[in-house]
Design a protein that fits this description.
The protein is an alpha+beta fold. Helices cover about 15% and strands about 30% of the residues. It is built from two helices and 18 strands. The chain has helices spanning about 140-160, 210-235, and strands at about 10-15, 30, 35-40, 45-50, 75, 80-85, 95-100, 110-120, 120, 125-135, 165-180, 180-195, 245, 250-260, 265, 275-280, 285, 295. Strands 10, 11, 12, 13 and 14 form a five-stranded antiparallel β-sheet that branches. It has a four-stranded antiparallel β-sheet with strand order 2-9-16-15, with no helix packed on it. The chain has a three-stranded antiparallel β-sheet with strand order 1-7-8, with no helix packed on it. Strand 5 and strand 6 (about 80-85) form a beta hairpin. Residues about 1-10, about 15-65 and about 200 have low confidence and may be disordered. Pfam families: EGF_Sp38_C (PF20626), Sp38 (PF07354). This is Zona pellucida-binding protein 1 isoform X3. Keywords: Cytoplasmic vesicle, Glycoprotein, Secreted. It comes from Bos indicus.
Length: about 300
């Protein structure tokens, strides 16, 4: 943040502290920076300060240090900028810049306070959710359990090189009544395919093709091809069908877009980043992977995950 004014000036920063649960440093970044952005607290988003009046550097006195001490999370530079290092969720809040200046040498010292709201944000939790059905062995059979493990291993290996992972969400076995075949056992699988984030490993590359959405799209295509190939293999099979096999046409897929607990999207409060998962402000919370922060008058912190 830079706030320059004519005449001799002193600046200082103070933060209105608010308790909040810390998050992994690698997972949290700033959605808005107090370096160049500003808005009154009631607005909720930040705008650039006018730079109409600015003095030479030697006429401005800065209160603060131009260096970041070891283990420090913030500094005030020699130009009056507030710089964050290793930003964490609990550092979200209202920051106040105190400015003393004299428009001219003859005039009295004037005071100015500028308040900045700094929010943490996280990338949305994007993933594909698949459902598929298999003709199965009797529901109490150990063969179904072995098949489930083997299927997950195959799917996980398919998307490993794309830095994606497969997670089993639900597995159920039911006896289903068919019109011609009578009762038969079926396995109902629900699993997700998501991109590995930086907390679990390094990014695969910096290339544009390695964006999370592009890697997920490739993973989706590989999985759809895998199930289509099962149908082709069974169609060429001369022997009787195996006891456990994929039921053609049962693969279904939906795209899921969620925010992590404590974060939510709000196009009214953050119109310049409508698809960002921004930390929930005091007075709101998100307890699960929802899209929006819900109202909670008893919540007094940023990033609340429960309404107590």
């Amino acid at each position: 943040m830079e706030a320059s004014a004519p005449g001799r000036a002193r600046r200082g920063w103070r933060r209105a502290r608010a308790a909040g649960s810390p998050l992994s440093r690698a997972a949290v970044v700033l959605v808005v920076s107090a370096l160049v952005l500003w808005a009154p607290p009631s607005v909720g988003y930040l705008d650039r300060l006018p730079r109409s009046a600015q003095l030479p550097q030697d006429s401005v006195k800065i209160v603060g240090s131009p260096n970041i001490p070891e283990n420090s999370t913030a500094q005030i530079t020699s130009t009056g900028s507030l710089v964050f290092q290793n930003f964490e969720e609990s550092m979200s809040g209202v920051y106040t810049c105190f400015l003393e200046y004299k428009p001219t040498v003859e005039e009295v010292i004037k005071n100015l306070q500028l308040k900045y709201v700094v929010y943490a944000y996280r990338e949305p939790h994007y993933y594909y959710q698949f459902t598929a059905r298999y003709h199965a062995a009797p529901c109490n059979s150990i063969y179904n359990i072995s098949f489930e493990k083997k299927l997950l291993q195959i799917l996980s290996k398919l998307v490993l090189d794309l830095s994606c992972e497969v997670s089993l969400l639900k597995s159920e076995c039911h006896r289903v009544k068919m019109q011609r075949a009578g009762l038969q056992n079926e396995l109902f699988f629900t699993f997700s395919v998501s991109s590995l984030d930086t907390e679990k490993g390094p990014k695969p590359c910096a290339d544009h093709s390695c964006e999370s959405s592009k890697r997920l799209s490739k993973a989706k295509n590989l999985i759809e091809r895998f199930f289509n190939q099962q149908v082709e293999v069974l169609g060429r099979r001369a022997e009787p069908l195996p006891e456990i096999y994929y039921i053609e046409g049962t693969l279904q897929m939906v795209w899921i877009n969620r925010c992590f607990p404590g974060y939510g999207m709000n196009i009214l409060k953050h119109p310049r980043c409508p698809e960002c998962c921004v930390i929930c402000s005091p007075g709101s919370y998100n307890s699960r992977d929802g899209i929006h922060c819900l109202q909670c008058n008893s919540s007094l912190v940023f990033g609340a995950k429960a309404c107590l």
